[in-house]
Amino acid sequence: MDFSWSDEQLALRDEAQRFAAQHLGRDLVHRDQSGSDNLETWREDWRKCAEFGIFGLSIPEEYGGRGRDILTSILILEAIGYGCRDNGLTLVANGQIWAVQEPIFSFGTDDQKRRYLPGLCDGSIIGAVSMTEHGAGSNAAGIKTTAEPIDGGYVLNGAKAYVGLGPSCDVALVFASTAPDRGSWGISAFLVDAETSGFIRRPPQQKMGLRTTPMGEFIFENCGIPKEARLGREGAGLAIFQHIMEWERSFILASHVGSMRRQLDDCVGFARSRIVFDQPIDQFQSVSNRLANMKLRLETAQLLLYKAAWLKAQGQSCPVEAALANLHMSEAFVESSLDAIRIHGGKGYLSETGIERDLRDAIGGVIYSGTSDIQRQIIAQLLKS
Ligand SMILES: Cc1cc2nc3c(=O)[nH]c(=O)nc-3n(C[C@H](O)[C@H](O)[C@H](O)COP(=O)(O)OP(=O)(O)OC[C@H]3O[C@@H](n4cnc5c(N)ncnc54)[C@H](O)[C@@H]3O)c2cc1C
User: Fold this and answer.
1) If you take atom 27 of ligand 1, which residue's CA is the nearest one?
2) Which atom of ligand 1 lies closest to the CA of 139?
3) Tens of pLDDT along 228-253?
4) Residues recognised as catalytic
5) pTM higher than 0.85
6) 129-234 adopts what CATH topology?
7) Burial letters for 192-206: b for 16+ Cβ neighbours within 10 Å, e otherwise?
């Protein structure tokens, strides 16, 4: 593995970092505080991201993308997270890229790719992915939403929960059972257009962090879709979901690793300039130990992220590396956000400084893409097999 970056890659990283710092995340404290009451403003930043080419990074040019390799794409997404302080925006952007676009590219028919990918890349279509139900989260194979086969298509019935971008999406990748008696082998995947009759996108729900972008529930009431809406084979849904999880676990936190890098730079700067007992606080060992721990977490998060990207670039499957990367990146961001608050003292606790927001945003990461418990279980199971 060689993670030395070329001059071109570093120039792209710097350009992305500058773009994100200058153009994304305005009025963030206010938008974070108003949460789901003020959720239309993120769309302007979404459009800017699309114009910059964020959504098309690793999608081939013939489907509207930039055709970049995975490692370069990851480096750019990390830089976006460094420059943009809106973790809600960068999370859902990564979610669309890795959990919606990637499976359409990998499993879609040519018609499906041409219908959705150019619009997802240019920002005119917003995509969501929906597996979780109130009764089935960690146990995803236990979903109860059904897609009853009928002549020429399917009829969806059921309810989905915690869908990132759900309230605002134009298309949703939905998992439902076409053959409930076959259990996990009966699950299939569908691309459902938001305007389809019987597809209800519930309003955004208030949440602890990531408050600048919407999350909500779906209801399907006799929602008829054509057979062309199915992604992949009938019954292949769980395999497609596992494929998505490997990509999502590996890369959904790429931009949050950039946030950790920015957080550390901010803390180093603050610790150098904050004078207490007549000296900069970075002279106190307990403060410098925190900075050292933050640096260690950042470096290991980057290495695990780049290793997963390198393996994917080789065309290799990497379930253990994906779970390790997700587990470490998510827990490291929580720990380092706590350290950042401690280093800043009372200032770190004030909402107006934005320092406490990182902690609230980070906590979602130990739940989505599989909780930390589930990541540990996957790692341990694969060690034993
Ligand atoms: C910010 C955020 C964004 C999300 N985005 C999406 C999305 O876009 N699309 C989507 O489909 N879903 C999404 N989700 C849902 C997410 O994937 C689920 O919340 C997650 O998988 C956990 O499921 P659950 O909430 O049902 O918890 P449960 O599965 O009920 O788990 C509850 C607790 O039990 C533990 N537990 C459960 N099973 C085991 C086990 N076998 N071993 C050890 N411990 C276990 C869990 O670790 C957890 O601590 C999102 C969630 C969040 C918070």
Assistant:
1) 137
2) 29
3) 999 999 999 999 999 999 999 999 99
4) 248
5) yes
6) Butyryl-CoA Dehydrogenase, subunit A; domain 2 (2.40.110)
7) bebebeebebeebbe
